[in-house]
Specification:
binds zinc ion, six-stranded mixed β-sheet, 6 helices, single chain, Collagenase (Catalytic Domain), globular
Protein backbone atom coordinates (compact mmCIF):
# COMPACT_ATOMS: atom_id res chain seq x y z
CA UNK A 1 0.00 0.00 0.00
CA UNK A 2 1.26 3.42 -0.90
CA UNK A 3 0.29 6.74 0.53
CA UNK A 4 1.66 9.63 -1.35
CA UNK A 5 1.03 13.28 -1.62
CA UNK A 6 1.03 15.14 -4.87
CA UNK A 7 1.18 18.88 -4.69
CA UNK A 8 0.22 21.16 -7.54
CA UNK A 9 1.79 24.61 -7.38
CA UNK A 10 0.46 27.80 -8.89
CA UNK A 11 2.13 31.16 -8.28
CA UNK A 12 4.09 29.67 -5.36
CA UNK A 13 0.90 28.57 -3.66
CA UNK A 14 -0.20 25.07 -2.87
CA UNK A 15 -3.51 24.53 -4.55
CA UNK A 16 -4.18 20.87 -4.35
CA UNK A 17 -2.75 18.01 -2.40
CA UNK A 18 -3.59 14.38 -3.00
CA UNK A 19 -3.03 11.81 -0.29
CA UNK A 20 -3.31 8.39 -1.77
CA UNK A 21 -3.10 4.89 -0.40
CA UNK A 22 -2.20 2.24 -2.90
CA UNK A 23 -2.72 -1.33 -1.83
CA UNK A 24 0.08 -3.50 -3.17
CA UNK A 25 -0.86 -7.20 -3.36
CA UNK A 26 2.18 -9.47 -3.35
CA UNK A 27 1.95 -13.12 -4.40
CA UNK A 28 -1.85 -12.94 -4.03
CA UNK A 29 -4.39 -14.82 -6.09
CA UNK A 30 -6.35 -12.54 -8.35
CA UNK A 31 -9.77 -13.80 -7.23
CA UNK A 32 -9.34 -12.59 -3.67
CA UNK A 33 -7.97 -9.28 -4.70
CA UNK A 34 -10.06 -8.38 -7.69
CA UNK A 35 -11.63 -5.05 -7.04
CA UNK A 36 -15.34 -5.53 -7.57
CA UNK A 37 -18.14 -3.30 -6.40
CA UNK A 38 -20.38 -6.01 -4.93
CA UNK A 39 -18.30 -5.95 -1.78
CA UNK A 40 -17.16 -9.56 -1.95
CA UNK A 41 -13.48 -9.03 -2.50
CA UNK A 42 -11.19 -8.54 0.44
CA UNK A 43 -9.54 -5.56 -1.12
CA UNK A 44 -12.91 -3.86 -1.61
CA UNK A 45 -13.82 -4.30 2.07
CA UNK A 46 -10.34 -3.18 3.08
CA UNK A 47 -10.47 -0.01 1.00
CA UNK A 48 -13.90 0.92 2.40
CA UNK A 49 -12.66 0.38 5.90
CA UNK A 50 -9.36 2.23 5.51
CA UNK A 51 -11.17 5.21 3.97
CA UNK A 52 -13.50 5.34 6.97
CA UNK A 53 -10.64 4.90 9.43
CA UNK A 54 -8.04 7.29 8.07
CA UNK A 55 -9.75 9.93 5.95
CA UNK A 56 -10.77 12.24 8.77
CA UNK A 57 -7.52 11.69 10.67
CA UNK A 58 -5.13 12.66 7.95
CA UNK A 59 -4.62 16.39 8.21
CA UNK A 60 -2.18 18.43 6.23
CA UNK A 61 0.07 21.01 7.77
CA UNK A 62 -0.18 23.77 5.22
CA UNK A 63 -2.33 26.84 5.62
CA UNK A 64 -2.10 27.90 1.98
CA UNK A 65 -3.64 24.64 0.82
CA UNK A 66 -6.96 25.23 -0.89
CA UNK A 67 -8.02 21.70 -1.52
CA UNK A 68 -6.90 18.28 -0.47
CA UNK A 69 -8.17 14.77 -0.95
CA UNK A 70 -7.45 11.32 0.33
CA UNK A 71 -7.74 8.35 -1.97
CA UNK A 72 -7.08 4.65 -1.86
CA UNK A 73 -6.39 2.48 -4.88
CA UNK A 74 -4.64 -0.74 -5.76
CA UNK A 75 -1.42 -1.52 -7.59
CA UNK A 76 -0.98 -4.56 -9.83
CA UNK A 77 0.02 -7.73 -8.01
CA UNK A 78 3.71 -8.47 -7.94
CA UNK A 79 6.11 -11.13 -6.63
CA UNK A 80 9.20 -10.52 -4.51
CA UNK A 81 12.74 -11.64 -5.46
CA UNK A 82 13.78 -15.03 -4.04
CA UNK A 83 16.71 -13.61 -2.04
CA UNK A 84 14.08 -12.38 0.44
CA UNK A 85 13.14 -16.01 1.12
CA UNK A 86 14.72 -18.17 3.83
CA UNK A 87 14.85 -21.68 2.35
CA UNK A 88 15.83 -23.30 5.62
CA UNK A 89 12.84 -21.89 7.52
CA UNK A 90 10.53 -21.90 4.49
CA UNK A 91 9.46 -18.38 5.38
CA UNK A 92 10.03 -14.94 3.91
CA UNK A 93 12.14 -12.44 5.83
CA UNK A 94 9.83 -9.62 6.83
CA UNK A 95 12.34 -6.86 7.54
CA UNK A 96 13.97 -7.48 4.15
CA UNK A 97 10.55 -7.37 2.49
CA UNK A 98 10.08 -3.90 4.02
CA UNK A 99 13.49 -2.75 2.75
CA UNK A 100 12.65 -4.09 -0.70
CA UNK A 101 9.30 -2.23 -0.68
CA UNK A 102 11.09 0.97 0.24
CA UNK A 103 13.66 0.56 -2.52
CA UNK A 104 11.11 -0.44 -5.12
CA UNK A 105 8.58 2.30 -4.50
CA UNK A 106 10.97 5.00 -3.41
CA UNK A 107 8.29 6.86 -1.46
CA UNK A 108 8.86 10.43 -0.32
CA UNK A 109 7.95 11.78 3.14
CA UNK A 110 4.25 11.56 2.42
CA UNK A 111 4.33 8.15 0.82
CA UNK A 112 3.44 5.04 2.76
CA UNK A 113 3.49 1.54 1.28
CA UNK A 114 1.46 -1.35 2.71
CA UNK A 115 1.91 -4.70 1.01
CA UNK A 116 -0.65 -7.48 1.37
CA UNK A 117 1.49 -10.61 1.12
CA UNK A 118 0.08 -14.09 0.67
CA UNK A 119 3.02 -15.90 2.25
CA UNK A 120 4.33 -16.57 5.73
CA UNK A 121 7.14 -14.42 7.14
CA UNK A 122 9.30 -14.00 10.22
CA UNK A 123 11.31 -11.17 11.66
CA UNK A 124 14.32 -11.05 14.00
CA UNK A 125 13.49 -12.96 17.18
CA UNK A 126 9.83 -13.52 16.24
CA UNK A 127 9.27 -16.91 14.58
CA UNK A 128 6.36 -15.45 12.63
CA UNK A 129 4.69 -12.09 12.14
CA UNK A 130 1.14 -11.17 11.11
CA UNK A 131 2.57 -7.90 9.86
CA UNK A 132 5.42 -5.46 10.26
CA UNK A 133 6.01 -1.77 9.60
CA UNK A 134 8.68 0.89 9.82
CA UNK A 135 7.55 2.95 12.80
CA UNK A 136 6.78 6.46 11.58
CA UNK A 137 8.22 5.39 8.24
CA UNK A 138 6.87 4.74 4.80
CA UNK A 139 6.38 1.01 4.41
CA UNK A 140 4.38 -1.79 6.03
CA UNK A 141 3.36 -5.34 5.16
CA UNK A 142 0.82 -7.86 6.37
CA UNK A 143 1.04 -11.62 5.83
CA UNK A 144 -2.13 -13.57 5.09
CA UNK A 145 -1.62 -17.33 5.68
CA UNK A 146 -1.82 -17.27 9.49
CA UNK A 147 -4.99 -15.16 9.33
CA UNK A 148 -6.84 -18.03 7.63
CA UNK A 149 -8.68 -20.71 9.60
CA UNK A 150 -7.32 -23.29 7.16
CA UNK A 151 -3.79 -22.66 8.42
CA UNK A 152 -4.82 -24.19 11.76
CA UNK A 153 -6.65 -27.04 10.00
CA UNK A 154 -9.97 -25.57 11.02
CA UNK A 155 -12.83 -25.41 8.62
CA UNK A 156 -14.23 -22.05 7.75
CA UNK A 157 -17.38 -21.74 5.67
CA UNK A 158 -17.27 -17.99 5.72
CA UNK A 159 -14.73 -15.43 4.62
CA UNK A 160 -15.97 -12.99 7.24
CA UNK A 161 -13.48 -13.84 9.97
CA UNK A 162 -10.55 -13.72 7.54
CA UNK A 163 -11.69 -10.35 6.21
CA UNK A 164 -11.95 -8.92 9.73
CA UNK A 165 -8.44 -10.14 10.56
CA UNK A 166 -7.00 -8.63 7.36
CA UNK A 167 -8.64 -5.29 8.17
CA UNK A 168 -7.37 -5.31 11.78
CA UNK A 169 -3.80 -6.15 10.78
CA UNK A 170 -3.83 -3.56 7.97
CA UNK A 171 -5.10 -0.80 10.27
CA UNK A 172 -2.56 -1.86 12.93
CA UNK A 173 0.44 -1.69 10.57
CA UNK A 174 -0.74 1.59 9.06
CA UNK A 175 -1.04 2.90 12.61
CA UNK A 176 2.67 2.12 13.07
CA UNK A 177 3.53 3.85 9.80
CA UNK A 178 1.70 6.93 11.10
CA UNK A 179 3.84 6.77 14.23
CA UNK A 180 1.65 4.91 16.72
CA UNK A 181 3.36 2.41 19.03
CA UNK A 182 1.67 -0.56 20.71
CA UNK A 183 -1.27 0.16 23.02
CA UNK A 184 -1.88 -1.49 26.37
CA UNK A 185 -5.63 -1.68 25.83
CA UNK A 186 -6.40 -5.19 24.64
CA UNK A 187 -9.43 -3.99 22.61
CA UNK A 188 -7.49 -1.31 20.75
CA UNK A 189 -6.36 -2.18 17.21
CA UNK A 190 -2.84 -1.06 18.20
CA UNK A 191 -2.60 -3.80 20.83
CA UNK A 192 0.18 -6.27 19.97
CA UNK A 193 -1.17 -9.59 18.64
CA UNK A 194 0.92 -12.39 20.03
CA UNK A 195 -1.60 -14.90 18.76
CA UNK A 196 -4.64 -15.00 16.52
CA UNK A 197 -6.81 -14.94 19.65
CA UNK A 198 -5.44 -11.46 20.39
CA UNK A 199 -6.31 -10.35 16.87
CA UNK A 200 -9.82 -11.78 17.15
CA UNK A 201 -10.34 -10.19 20.56
CA UNK A 202 -9.28 -6.69 19.60
CA UNK A 203 -11.43 -4.22 17.74
CA UNK A 204 -10.68 -2.89 14.27
CA UNK A 205 -10.63 0.66 15.63
CA UNK A 206 -8.18 2.85 17.53
CA UNK A 207 -8.96 3.54 21.19
CA UNK A 208 -9.64 7.13 22.21
CA UNK A 209 -6.01 7.78 23.16
CA UNK A 210 -4.54 6.37 19.92
CA UNK A 211 -7.17 8.27 17.93
CA UNK A 212 -6.10 11.49 19.61
CA UNK A 213 -2.41 10.89 18.92
CA UNK A 214 -3.15 10.10 15.28
CA UNK A 215 -5.28 13.21 14.81
CA UNK A 216 -2.58 15.40 16.35
CA UNK A 217 -0.08 14.25 13.69
CA UNK A 218 0.01 16.25 10.53
CA UNK A 219 1.45 15.55 7.13
CA UNK A 220 4.00 17.99 5.86
CA UNK A 221 3.91 19.27 2.32
ZN1 LIG B 1 2.52 -3.85 15.98
ZN1 LIG C 1 -4.95 2.39 21.74
Amino acid sequence: MLIFAKVVYLKDQYLYLLMQIIIQPISCSASEFEHNSNGNSIVYSLIQHLLKTFRDKVSIDNSSLQYSSFQISTAAATIPPTYLYDRRRKQWISNRILDWLLQNNNPDDNMKVLAICDFDAYSDELNFVFGEAHLGGRVAAIYLPRLREEFYVRKSDTNKLFKQRVIKEAVHELGHVFGLTHCEKSKCVMHFSNSLQDTDFKDHKFCERCNKILKSRQFKT
